[in-house]
Amino acid sequence: MNRESDSKRGVKSDETLFALIELLRERDGAGVTELARAAGVAKSTVHGHLTSMRDHGFVVKRGQTYHLGLQFFDYGQYVRGRLDIFRAGMFAADRLERETGEMSWLITHQGGKAMYVYGRGGENDIDVNKLLGTWAHMHCNSGGKAILAHLPEDEVNRIVDTHGLPARTDDTITDRDELNEELARIREQGYALNQSEDLAGIHAIGVPLRFEGEVQGALSVAGPAHRLSKERCEGEILDRLRAATNEIDVSLAYR
Amino acid sequence: MNRESDSKRGVKSDETLFALIELLRERDGAGVTELARAAGVAKSTVHGHLTSMRDHGFVVKRGQTYHLGLQFFDYGQYVRGRLDIFRAGMFAADRLERETGEMSWLITHQGGKAMYVYGRGGENDIDVNKLLGTWAHMHCNSGGKAILAHLPEDEVNRIVDTHGLPARTDDTITDRDELNEELARIREQGYALNQSEDLAGIHAIGVPLRFEGEVQGALSVAGPAHRLSKERCEGEILDRLRAATNEIDVSLAYR
DNA sequence: CCCTTTGTTCGGTGACATCGAACGCGCTCC
DNA sequence: GGAGCGCGTTCGATGTCACCGAACAAAGGG
Predict the structure, then answer these.
(1) Most B CBs within 10 Å: which of A43, A73, A138, as the mutation test of the B interface?
(2) Would you say residue B3 lies in a domain?
(3) Within 10 Å of residue B166's Cβ, how many Cβ atoms?
């Protein structure tokens, strides 16, 4: 009723399960009654799903309220660990951070969005853990743009159709044609810049990580605008990024 | 049919969903037919669940085979980020690793098992990422024993009933009475030692992290036996652990 | 101590999860 | 190159079980 698209050939019961999971996250844990009201289902239904999840560690009960369980962390670590990009790029990202003193990021994409897969701190690790494992739009950050630039044209179109080009700052690219020009430029020069297009005052530069003709992800360096001038990005940092990419390519080829 | 305990009041459809998820992990991705055979359900059933999961990013399709998706990593990072222990203990673990040059671990427990929530490398980060986010029995590592020692007696019994005391090495405590003696000792001296009880040649020392009268987790230092002698553990390292614990306690109190 | 609100249990019932057969495709192997 | 196997996917028919709502049991709060 609330979701208009029931046309899909999925399992409805799973749909409510996932809704409950998302609700538990949004609210940082919740009770049965609260969940039932929010999801629009009976209390007993919610209770049933929670019981199943509890048996598998996806949910824990503290007092009267249910919370998402560490089983998610378990599976999450597994999924990340399976990514070639992650295994081949970790060390490169570490070194990049040491050499530049700025944040370094390993990024990949799934379902038309980019995810921060691995990051190293620069000044403080707090920000890293805030972003780590979160989804981002691909049009407004260096890594995402670097990936988009090397994706088939129809896939780029599909992604833009699905997720749009929301403005994060005044400098975000929100026009389709403008994005295509930018992607062509990135393809040509081999790297993508982000000048306050995602967060005001944050600049970044990213390069694509390709393997077997496909973009697997991107490697990027980000930091405050006053330190990451266009000149520094396209000079020192780009050189280091190129070296790191090369190292990762080799590592991917011989994995 | 394969599972004998259908007595639980859960949702059967969720049960097969979780079975599929686990199968996808065990096999590092699989096709519909393979999953259907392994789970003992119809292909169309599998396909339905996969479609639902795909819509929510829990699964991705590469070619003809399905793999677990990065949505798990997203939720996983969220769950860890909500742990008080993690937010309050990260920095302490970092410093501990720098000061001792050994691996440091932040551990917590759920459902009677311990999980490695945060770790820093010591010599190599590879091992850290192997263990990070995995479950462990609580009776055979320092952090787990430190937690057990400060849990109510009936809960300890329930845990042992559920998970048993499997022998990981020749030195693993496999006897219930012996475990209880050990736990009493730990309670008295305030720290737990692990001398090759989990992995041969690996020693460790752990202290409990308590807050509001409850054990929230444990902090531990681990490394090769030849460097982590009983004397060093109970001397220098214990001192540093105590300092770190104190810092975490303060951080927890004022969170 | 009542009275509200919570989590939990319990049958009854119709929606829907499940099944099996059929389809279309890509592959291999004669 | 076409016959045949295997795959993922679709489609109805069916009977199971996910769902509901009411009743129950604890747990606070006034």
Answers:
(1) A73
(2) no
(3) 10
